[in-house]
Every structure is written in structure tokens, then in C-alpha cells.
Amino acid sequence: MKLLYVTREAPYGDNEGFILPEIDSHIQAGWDVFVCPLDGRKLVHRIEQTVLDRTMTKLLISPSICAGAIAQFVRTPRLALDTLWKLVTHSRITLLPRNLAVWPKGLWLGRQVRLLNIQHIHAHWIAVPATMGFIAASVAEVPFSITAHRYDIAQGNLIPTKFEAASFVRAIDEGGASELAMQARSDQRRPIILRMGVNIPDQPAPSPPDGVFRGVVGARLAEKKGYGYLLEAVAIAKQQGLAVHIDAFGDGPLEAELRRKADKLGISELVTWQGSVGHETLLERIRSGDYHFGVLPSVTARDGDKEGIPVFLMEAMAAGLPVISTPNGGIRELVAPGTGILVEERDSDAIAAAMVRLARNPSERRAMGTAARDRIITDFSIEARMNQLRSLISKSVTSGPPYRQPVPETQQDFRKVIV
């Protein structure tokens, strides 16, 4: 199977590390996987050269993009104009510029799909990445599918149009599936709920040393992640005689504000801002045995953005860490009773109480960590999830209409095609 992943920035950047294990799983299953980000340059993660060699790293617009778009337009003018018409007539006025911006690259990508004999396109995010995947799949006449998360669902970018064109739309939690169904037409198929999965280490993380009580959080420094409430909770715990050290991995728009808040609360010595790191580095730290718990006090942002099921929490639980979080978005579907502690959103006192509880009850903490790891092994293994995804993709290829004739093998050299 030749599969193309369309992403926002993966394998580049630091916000889509959760997609890389999916790609690796497909490769391990013997599939030939290509990747095309909307844009991307900064390499953060440790990536297999095989993936980088098959990543179509192109700007949204360039001479080669324009040349490829024109070539594809000349070859399939009706299909190209049909996608343009749908973008213009179906897009919200606020989203139209974003969709039009990817039209040339979508045509260019469709040409690459045809020349490489790619059989299926899978786009992560039902926002602009899925727009580009929709354009490419339409002009190349191959099936495509979408994984929708959460912010992208709320954006409402051509969702009925994409449902109509896609072989299937995957939601990663029940809440996301409900929101998608509300935006799709009543006569369209419902989304498939297929949760994210993670690689599970052979052994849980070693027990941390006695003395310093330490937690870990890995997320962007953004409103939805609730960092401000975590800082307040650390200050409250400190007032109660418990020093909780937090290692925060990630960067984002609130970094300066959060650093100032930590200073103002008098907890700067308890919070270490680790910055943005690659996915493998974060996994190594989670599994290092340095931490007693993972924490992510997510909230619904002012613009309505909320969580799906955060991969960071899954990975912490897979390492045998109990977690502290909120029932935001799909988190309640992950953190079952006995695997961690859920508190109400924006409740700093409750977060502090949960940290104190874990610190003062080591046997309960260890039992929660064991249950958390068992939960991931049973319900969130990436191999089980990707076997299901591969089955859906294979079905779309074998049961779909007779697509375009393959290009002769002599024309399929990737390095010669991507120009």
C-alpha cells in the first residue's frame, strides 16, 4: 500500500509528534508512506531517514508548486475547477483565504500522487490540511480520509464537503464525533470513533527517588492547557508545606506571562521550563523514573477550543504514572477511576489537593500508576489502533471506484518526481 499523510507540519515542528508513531506503525507493517506538510522547516524530532526521504517539503507557493499545479490543471481541468468552485461557494468567508491559499499546492500534490501511484491520502486535521488533501485526492482520483481532532472541528471548515468526498472521517473521541455529526448533513455517514494510541514501553518507569516530589507536564504554553491554574496549585501546596517540583515541556504564546506568574507566586524555584523538545526526548524523560505523576489541568479556552484525548496523558500513563487532569473534552474517556485524579476545570485548590494526596499516599499513587498503565495497554495501544486504521484504508482502496491508471514503474522515482 502506498499511503500519503497530509499534516500541518509533521515531521517538522513540535506540535504533531503524536502523528509520528502512526507513520512508523504503517512503515513497520510494510506500507510505503509519504508525508506532505502544509509547511515545515524546523526539525525537532528524531526522525528515521526513511520518513525524511519521503517527506514532500515545499512552501505553499513557489515556482515548482506553480509549475506542478499548472501541469495538473491542464491534465484535469474539470476536476480542478470543481474543487475551486467548492472552495469558493462552500467556504465561510473568514476561511476562504486559507482554503484558496492551498489550492495550488493541492493541485501540485495531486500530480505527485498520480506520478508516485499513491493509493490513498490520509489528512490529519479536518481544517486546512484536509482541504489540501481533498483537492489532491479529487484531481488524482484516489480515495482519501481524515482524522479530526478538536480545534479543527470547531473551526467548521468545509465539513459537509469533506464528509461527502472522504471514504471515512475518524474522530478521536466521542465528543468530537458528536460535534462532527452536528456539522455534517443528516444524510451523510457518521464519523468513526478511533482513538489515538501510543507505543507502550516494555517496563513501567522506575520508582523515583525519595525526597523531591516531582511532576511532569508536556504541552504547549497555551490557554487550553491550564498552566496558570497549575502554577497556582503549586503555590497552594507550598503554603501547605509540600514542595512540588514541576518540569514543563513545551513552548507557546503564554510563556512570558507564565514565567512572570511563577515569579509573582514565589515558586520560580519549583518550576523548570524545559522548552520545546523532540517527541523521543519527552518520552525518555517521562520514562526516566524522575517523576511521581503527570499533570495536565486543561480548560475550555475562550474561543471554545478544548482537548481531544491528549497524547501526553496517554504516554505518562503508559509509563506507569498516575495523572492529574480535568474532564475537559475527551479526557474523561481516558482517565478512568483509579488511574488518576480528575478535578473540575480552573480549580487550583483541587489540583493542589490532588498533588498533596498523591505525595502523602505512596501506596495509592503506585496502585494508580499500575492501573493507568494497564488502561493504556488494554485500550490505547497504537498497534491495535493502527491495525484498525489500516483496515479502513485498505477497504477504501479495494471497494472504491476504478481510479486512474497507474503510472509506469519507471516514472516512480520519488526524488525525480518531487520537483
UniProtKB/TrEMBL annotation:
**Which SUPFAM superfamilies does UniProt cross-reference here?**
UDP-Glycosyltransferase/glycogen phosphorylase
The entry lists its GO molecular-function terms as: glycosyltransferase activity
- Pfam families in the cross-refs: Glycos_transf_1 (PF00534)
Gene3D superfamilies, per the entry: Glycogen Phosphorylase B
Residue ranges occupied by any Glycosyl transferase family domain in the UniProt entry:
219-374
Q: Which UniProt keywords apply?
A: Transferase
Q: What is this protein called?
A: Glycosyltransferase
